[in-house]
């Protein structure tokens, strides 16, 4: 009986030890496999640069971040969680992989509310270069952005250059005090000199009359000369104010209305680096940049921030079928023609040139005056984007033969009236 008990105990120990060894082996080999997957991702700088370029060109950053979940999953360590071959298939055609019944693909599909990643016409090497960029970013995270400077009371300190208005007022006040003191000193000096002359006994009659003469303020004010000067100054100042007022007609620089939905460009274009063209789809193909419709918003917000009160307004607009009545900010008069695609697609002009640092605006405001003079200055100072465009070859050759400066917009008729007014 004792032998049987010892045998059973020994058998139980051996089985448990074998199970523990099997568990350890599985754990170790799974780690080896994960590192093997990571090692399959190249670290060559040229491949990383190509991956970064593709990541931007194919708008991967619209839905993905390396270190955080966005519209899609975070890409950090994706090569450790999935096989490289599986990543190729999912990136190139996720719909086909989901339809095949792949468990991992369907799990991602369900986790993100039925959103399917678009198919991408990328080769295996191109996908691998994107993985190289992801690995490089994961292993070499960018330095954290510098904290915003704040004053002692917690208010943000202005980052712009120049003298703060508070100090400017102090300086002006100090100058006024100095001028008043100078006038007082001059008055005292005149008084001392006058008293000195009055005490002299050898003054002739004319000098004595000048010394004893008293200043008549009312007579001075009523004199024709003073009245004429004051009248002239009033007319000039009034005319200047009228002309300045006429120049501001239709100019809405600084206009910052409250929108029906609190949309933050600082979050979308700044923090998440979503391309302007993703929402303003017409900017590269037509005259108008167009205001995005609700379905563009729902591409992301059908799965993220769904409980936000502002996002609920999107759902209400989608259900009612009524468009959101956004308040237009940038308006040009009907007499002026402006084409976004001509400037953005052909000219290569950045959005910030006209709209300011839009990626830093919580609430959008009109940055530029959008006046004719402002446009003309831009045409005078902006060099043509002729690189890689054979259309300009002859013009550039002709221009360079006669001028030492780069060819500007004005050199191809950028100041002709009919270019903008027809």
From TrEMBL:
Gene3D superfamilies: Cytochrome c-like domain, Cytochrome C3. It comes from Roseivirga pacifica. InterPro entries: Cyt_c-like_dom (IPR009056), Cyt_c-like_dom_sf (IPR036909), Cyt_c_III_dom (IPR020942), Multihaem_cyt_sf (IPR036280). Keywords: Electron transport, Heme, Iron, Membrane, Metal-binding, Signal, Transmembrane, Transmembrane helix, Transport. Pfam families: Cytochrom_C, Cytochrom_CIII. The chain crosses the membrane at residues 167-193, 219-239. Residues 1-36 form the signal peptide. GO terms for molecular function: electron transfer activity; heme binding; metal ion binding. It comes from the Bacteria. The keyword Iron applies. This is Quinol:cytochrome c oxidoreductase pentaheme cytochrome subunit. Residues 46-138 form the Cytochrome c domain. The keyword tRNA processing does not apply.
